[in-house]
């Protein structure tokens, strides 16, 4: 939001040697920024009341013992101490979430990119296919789809019957610790539509001249993909990667429904947020749950920062020229 | 957006805050508590259970509304786990329903957190208790005062597929199985039919409680402490391990989904030939099971202790914050004591608590209701009184933890003895011992 930043820092900027257009914003523009605030106000009020306020409250609760009924009691770092040193289930949920993120994110992005490449070629019915592949992203977060998933992979489900044709008998996958998380991962991968659409937009931006030049130099399709397409869409790849990793760490609904709300058989699909929810709403330990939420926030922030740092090494912005 | 589950975390806290606000507002605007006045009152009544219970309860509520045109009743029902979470959030947010269904763990929880209204002022006035036996009423007492009313009378039973057992050549012994005979027969059912003889019953602390009583112990002592040791639980789970080895009980993957509901029952899914249950579930078994069901007492090695008790399947309580307590008590009285209401409800919450109503319901009962009545009259003399079967605050967490650890045991992640030690350790923490 450059307009706001400019409006705020107008005073200092006037003296600074900056390009003329920015130093003296025309009058009309200034009036507009006032209007912008008016239009933004629902969002600003919403963000401060509905997000920042509760977040601060949860930060306070993270240092308390709070059972929802009695007033919170200050306990200092005790919640964090218990979490890190005494809670086996906590570390199990961390491990399950890591497995979930490390498997689902790369596979989901690969699927999204693969399908986007196919849909990028001009052919009949592309519009239909795009919508069709995007649909699961809209549906995937809903409880009803997770319930369908449960019956697909459950006992006497379609998947079990299908594997039976090949003589493989696994039984109910959702009720076995070895497979329960896999079904949750499969549900996540199936929703590759959103990153796919973003990849498609990125692919459209790759200049055709580059392909022509590469083809003239004798590069085949595989070479063209790795030497032209992939480097050119790295900014989009970074964007998708960051978004998907954050989403993976916050994933909840699928595991909640497929695991019958308990985190699957023997805690095998107990994602972090699910355990957080259990602590808060089954055990009435809101202080502990808030502490968990803040640890998650900090971890996600660290991972995001690391990703952005590493991006200097592998992300190519067309504007930078060669390096 | 009805299908979406609310995201946990800050949104929920916020929702709770919004509810508090709404709750205060409504509390301020509601009229004083007068049933006689013409002012229309709306009360909320919530419960959990299967479809059959919901249908019967809705019918009774309609009848009540017709008799009391100035009271409108809003009803809500859901499955058990969702019910407890929702109710707790509502109570904490100051938006508690007026009349609520409770069970032994939630009664202990809410009573000790001072969220239930004392019913003593209504007893004998709006709320008649003459027809309800003292031993049943005792289940809803705390510190010598009445905080909840028993919704009925239930006891543990063994429900099995009659035809399957007949084909397998297994008959229920005249005075019930001993555990050893039982194990042999369950393996036999599996060998003959391919279906496990019974659903692995190690997951529910309720059935362990029965076994403890048969061995002269209790799950919780009267001073709200743990009544069993690691060794007891290890012995119990080892007995099940050997049954599992001989395929007498269901495999781990069929056991893990058990939650007491008909939709997740291994018996209803025909993965097993029988199940241990409360007789208040007979109506839902009959309406969901394809086949002919028979009923038997629990296996027991003791001649005097059957492991079955006369328990209230669920209770009713009135929220402390309710501003329509009188109206809620009126509805409660109607549900408990009206003979017509009793007939409609049948045995969906066990047999009616009022003995006169129970007698008339059982006299004209058919189908599943009759099965429940017949079973109860058959085992009447073998039921132990409910006062040694009370669950304290914290028992709700113990119950969930018990099943979770048992999952680890049946999937081989933990031995029976390590699991038992874990349950005892966690239980002591939950009970504040």
How would you portray this structure in words?
The complex is a heterodimer of chains A (323) and B (433). Chain A has a single domain, classed as MetI-like fold, CATH 1.10.3720.10. Chain A contains 17 helices and 2 strands. Chain A has helices at 2-8, 10-15, 20-23, 27-61, 78-85, 88-120, 126-139, 143-153, 158-165, 177-190, 193-205, 208-216, 221-232, 234-250, 253-258, 272-282, 286-314, and strands spanning 64-65, 73-74. Chain A has a two-stranded antiparallel ribbon. The longest helix of chain A is centred in the first third of the chain and has 35 residues, at 27-61. Chain A is globular and about 75 Å long. Chain B has 17 helices and 10 strands. Chain B has helices at 10-29, 51-67, 80-92, 104-112, 134-138, 162-168, 179-193, 205-214, 230-245, 252-255, 282-288, 325-337, 339-345, 355-363, 367-379, 395-410, 416-430, and strands at 41-48, 71-78, 99-102, 141-142, 145-146, 149-150, 156-161, 274-278, 293-296, 315-318. In chain B, the strands form 3 sheets. In chain B, strands 2-1-3-10-6 form a 5-stranded mixed beta sheet. In chain B, strands 8-7-9 form a 3-stranded antiparallel beta sheet. In chain B, strands 4-5 form a two-stranded antiparallel sheet. In chain B, strand 1 (41-48), helix 2 (51-67) and strand 2 (71-78) form a beta-alpha-beta unit. Chain B starts with 9 loop residues before the first helix and ends with a helix. Chain A binds chain B through residues 50-51, 54-55, 57-58, 61, 67-70, 141-144, 155, 171-172, 175-177, 252-253, 256-257, 260-262, 265-267, 273, 276-277, 280-284, 286, 289, 293, and chain B through 3-5, 7-14, 16-17, 81-82, 84-85, 88-89, 91-92, 113-115, 252-254, 256-257, 259, 264, 269, 271, 397, 400, 403-404, 407-408, 411, 413.
The CATH architecture term of chain A is Orthogonal Bundle
Number of domains of chain A: 1
Radius of gyration of chain A: 25 Å
Distance between the termini of chain B: 44 Å
| CATH level-4 homologous superfamily of chain A | MetI-like
Distance between the termini of chain A: 30 Å
The major β-sheet of chain B equals:
5 strands, mixed
Shape of chain B: globular
Please give the count of helices of chain A: 17
Number of domains of chain B: 2
Which regions of chain A have little confidence, pLDDT < 50, spanning 5+ residues? 1-21
Radius of gyration of chain B: 22 Å
Helix amount of chain A: over 70%
Shape of chain A: globular
């Amino acid at each position: 939001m450059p307009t706001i930043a400019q409006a705020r820092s107008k005073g200092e900027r006037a003296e600074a040697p900056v390009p003329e257009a920015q130093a003296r914003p025309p009058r009309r523009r200034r009036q507009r920024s006032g209007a912008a605030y008016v239009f933004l106000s629902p969002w600003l009020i919403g963000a401060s009341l509905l997000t920042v306020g509760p977040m601060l409250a949860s930060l306070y609760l993270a240092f308390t013992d709070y059972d929802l009924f009695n007033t919170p009691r200050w306990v200092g770092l005790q919640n964090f101490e218990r979490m890190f040193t005494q809670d086996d289930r906590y570390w199990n949920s961390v491990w399950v979430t890591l497995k979930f993120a490390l498997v689902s994110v790369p596979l989901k992005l690969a699927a999204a990119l693969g399908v986007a490449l196919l849909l990028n070629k001009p052919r009949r019915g592309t519009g239909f296919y795009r919508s069709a592949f995007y649909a699961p992203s809209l549906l995937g977060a809903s409880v009803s789809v997770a319930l369908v998933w449960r019956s697909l992979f459950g006992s006497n489900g379609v998947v079990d019957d299908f594997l039976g044709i090949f003589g493989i008998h696994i039984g109910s996958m959702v009720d076995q610790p070895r497979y329960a998380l896999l079904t949750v991962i499969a549900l996540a991968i199936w929703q590759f539509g959103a990153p796919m659409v973003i990849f498609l937009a990125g692919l459209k931006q790759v200049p055709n001249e580059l392909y022509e030049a590469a083809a003239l130099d004798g590069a085949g399709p595989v070479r063209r993909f790795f030497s032209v397409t992939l480097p050119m869409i790295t900014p989009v790849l970074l964007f998708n990667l960051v978004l998907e990793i954050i989403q993976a760490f916050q994933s909840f609904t699928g595991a909640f429904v497929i695991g019958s709300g308990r985190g699957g058989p023997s805690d095998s699909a107990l994602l972090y947020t699910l355990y957080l929810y259990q602590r808060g709403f089954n055990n009435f330990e809101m202080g502990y749950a808030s502490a968990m939420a803040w640890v998650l926030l900090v971890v996600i922030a660290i991972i995001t920062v690391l990703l952005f740092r590493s991006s200097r090494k592998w992300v190519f912005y067309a504007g930078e020229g060669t390096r | 957006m009805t299908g979406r589950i609310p995201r946990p975390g800050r949104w929920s806290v916020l929702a709770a805050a919004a509810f508090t606000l709404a709750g205060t507002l409504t509390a301020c605007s509601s009229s004083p508590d007068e049933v006689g006045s013409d002012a229309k009152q709306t009360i909320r009544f919530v419960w959990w259970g299967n479809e059959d219970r919901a249908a019967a309860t809705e019918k009774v509520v309609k009848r009540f509304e017709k008799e009391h045109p100035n009271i409108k009743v809003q009803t809500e029902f859901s499955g058990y786990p969702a019910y407890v979470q929702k109710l707790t959030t509502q109570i904490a947010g100051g938006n508690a329903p007026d009349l609520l269904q409770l069970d032994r763990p939630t009664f202990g929880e809410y009573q000790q957190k001072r969220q239930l209204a004392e019913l003593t002022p209504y007893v004998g006035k709006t709320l008649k208790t003459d027809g309800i036996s003292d031993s049943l009423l005792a289940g809803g007492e705390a510190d010598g005062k009445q905080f909840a009313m028993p919704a009925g009378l239930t006891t543990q039973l063994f429900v099995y597929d009659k035809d399957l057992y007949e084909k397998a050549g297994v008959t229920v012994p005249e005075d019930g199985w001993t555990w050893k005979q039982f194990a042999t027969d369950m393996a036999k059912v599996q060998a003959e039919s391919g279906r496990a003889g019974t659903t692995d019953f190690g997951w529910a602390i309720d059935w362990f409680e029965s076994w403890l009583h048969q061995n002269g112990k209790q799950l919780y002592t009267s001073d709200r402490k743990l009544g069993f040791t690691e060794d007891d639980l290890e012995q119990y789970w080892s007995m099940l391990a050997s049954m599992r080895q001989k395929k007498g009980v269901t495999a781990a993957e069929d056991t893990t989904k058990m939650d007491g509901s008909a939709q997740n029952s291994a018996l209803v899914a025909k993965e097993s030939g029988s199940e241990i249950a409360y007789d208040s579930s007979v109506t839902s078994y009959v309406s969901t099971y394809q086949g002919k069901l028979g009923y038997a007492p629990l296996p027991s090695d003791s001649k005097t202790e059957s492991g079955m008790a006369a328990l209230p399947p669920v209770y009713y309580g009135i929220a402390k914050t309710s501003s329509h307590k009188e109206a809620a008590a009126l509805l409660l009285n109607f549900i408990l004591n009206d003979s017509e209401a009793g007939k409609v409800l049948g045995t969906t919450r066990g047999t009616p608590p009022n003995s006169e109503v129970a007698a008339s319901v059982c006299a004209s009962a058919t189908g599943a209701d009759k099965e429940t009545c017949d079973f109860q009259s058959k085992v009447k003399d073998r039921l132990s009184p409910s006062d040694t079967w009370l669950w304290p605050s914290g028992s709700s967490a113990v119950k969930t933890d018990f099943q979770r650890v048992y999952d680890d045991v049946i999937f081989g992640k933990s031995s029976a003895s390590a699991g038992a030690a874990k349950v005892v350790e966690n239980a002591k923490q939950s009970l504040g011992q």
